[in-house]
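Predicting holo structure, uridine-5'-diphosphate bound.
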Amino acid sequence: MENQQETLVSRNRRIILFPFPFQGHINPMLQLANLLYSKGFSITILHTNFNTPKISNYPHFTFISILDNDPEDERFSKSSLINFAPNFIFKQDGADVLRKELELLLALEKDELVSCLITDAFWHFTQSVADSLNLPRLVLRTSSLYSTIIFSSIPLLDDRGYFTLDDSHLEEQVSEFPLLKVKDILKIGIKSDKDPYAELLSEMIKQTKASSGIIWNSFKELEETELERVQHDFPVQSFLIPFPKYLTSSSSSLLDQDQTVIHWLDQQSTESVLYVSFGSISQVDEKEFLEIAHGLVNSKQPFLWVVRPGFVKGSTWLESLPDEFLGEKGRVVKWAPQQEVLAHEATGAFWTHSGWNSTLESVCESVAMICSPFRGDQSLDARYMSDVLRVGVYLENGFERGEISSAIKRVMVDEEGKEIRERVRVLKQKADVSLMKGGSSNESMESLVDYISSLQV
Ligand code: UDP
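Done. Tokens:
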């Protein structure tokens, strides 16, 4: 991770950013905010009370809570936000609340001009608000270009009947996207384009196309072909910046990261440890949990496993495991400083749910992957990592202890693992070069700053 030198300029331009309130969305938005601050912009963060970012870690930003301020309003209760995808509610109501908040803010700012609003792509209703206030809106898309292209094709895939195919078709190729199998498409988790989640994705795509620009947490050399397609399909400027190469996301972690793991890793041999984490939302049932545990122990490799409280449905934490089950080689924690773990020389591979932040963090630290996607974009990114870039092994059939330990052996012990590590090392090098003067990410960052500075409000 590079050190960001703060540009010494007087701050007379403000940017308002609005992250979607989940860990995988908050991290890249706050990384982006820090980068823009380092380029001389003042920063205001709009946030919900649900999953409020750690404000004390950002004394240089202004924070304003919006949307769920009324404790009496059950639409904003914790459970309805958690079920945001199927029951997404922030449409006209959300737009009205945001418009009032922005009008107040714009009226307040006398010495500084507000250059633009940057919102998560999921906050699609913010486009109409920004338009009505003549405020340019840029979108932060927190997933890959590849998965976004597939998401933009959901109506087509639905037309062709993919979402209703039965299990006998799971292994078939998707002819419109030959990289994918039918099971990858089904794993997105929608049944038809009338599904509320599909509607959310479709609005997201529509309003992203209507925005003033798209910021992607990625880099050109990682998704070069997809960039061409995006430039063709999305008629606005795209800026590709791999945030994990610039900063860690520790300061925006909602859970406390267990720092003692670094000392534990210091005592392990080089590239000997399998790091295991399935992100901030995924859950398994007890049977799957036990398969994972058996697979890990049977592999006989040292492992560092993040088991988030709530990860196992119906359990508080590890109570379904027999005492001493994990033995000497395994370390389990509730939450880890993931980027530091991936950067540690003892880490040999990452068994991940293929969330986009985790995937990119792994690439940026040149760590080979085992991919176990759960839902949403994860199956698409897993397929891309395993079949296009060939930097991961895709565990395609869920959690089965025999398949798990054989995948671990392939990546940690076999010749195949060495080849995967070599490929991911080359990718990391490309990411490093992209940050240098004249490199693609560096140029993207500079043109983003120029572009925002040029916006007339
Ligand atoms: N993360 C972390 N500690 C952990 C596990 C994850 O700090 O023990 C961070 C990780 O570095 C990443 C984010 O949480 O930035 C997870 O985002 P991702 O897109 O990978 O998955 P999601 O949680 O959205 O499913």
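The CA atoms of residues 264 and 331 lie 9 Å apart.
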